[in-house]
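User: For a reading group we're discussing how well predicted structures match intuition. Take Ribulose-phosphate 3-epimerase. Before you show the prediction, I'll give you the sequence so everyone sees exactly what went in.
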Amino acid sequence: MVASPLIAPSILSADFAKLGEEIAAVAHPGPTRADWVHVDVMDAHFVPNLTLGLPVVQSLLKSTDVPIDCHLMIDDPDRWAIGYAEAGAYNVTVHVEAAADPVMLAKNLRAAGAKAGLSVKPGTPLEPHLETLKHYDTLLVMSVEPGFGGQSFIADVLEKVRTARRLADTGHLKLIVEIDGGINSDTIEQAAEAGVDCFVAGSAVYGAEDPGRAVAALREQAARVRVS
Ligand SMILES: O=C(CO)[C@@H](O)[C@H](O)COP(=O)(O)O
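Assistant: Thanks. Here is the predicted 3D structure of Ribulose-phosphate 3-epimerase, as structure tokens, for the group to look at:
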């Protein structure tokens, strides 16, 4: 388990006309700084939404020193994911439902200098993928159907978080456990109790008047649960 909970604001809920400023708002040193910035890449095939791609990510990487956490909700990640790793993304997450050879993909991402992340949709069980997960650095448990921000948290997925936490704590997997979807002040505590390390939050951060303060408040709330 990471020492302090990680907060990763999702720019899906930010103003796309001023992404640089929106990221800068959570990049000031101190408690209001995001640990990672979560960038949702959607292709309108794997999910019914279209966002941005590699050229935008390359520009974002030049504009900030906050580690970029790329979540690829795309078909054929075996072909496209490597570009994000080569561009300098800190963590590149692909969907197990979309990857043809997730083990090879993880090896390629790591060889290109990124952490390798594997994501599961709410309805995808973890058990068939436990061997594959040995090759990954992060597990992104989706707590909404991927595609849109502002949806309600699906608490059933916390069972997968508990399983991953147990396997990580007993040394069977070496993973950062990340959760994505519907994370806010009402839901973060149950996710923290289940063993999440990294909390992705879109509307709870970019819908707030002060995104940096929202980051600090979420981190504090998660940390309180973990020590109590
Ligand atoms: O990947 C996704 C949605 O597919 C997420 O990253 C959302 O951007 C999270 O937004 P909120 O549920 O926190 O508003």
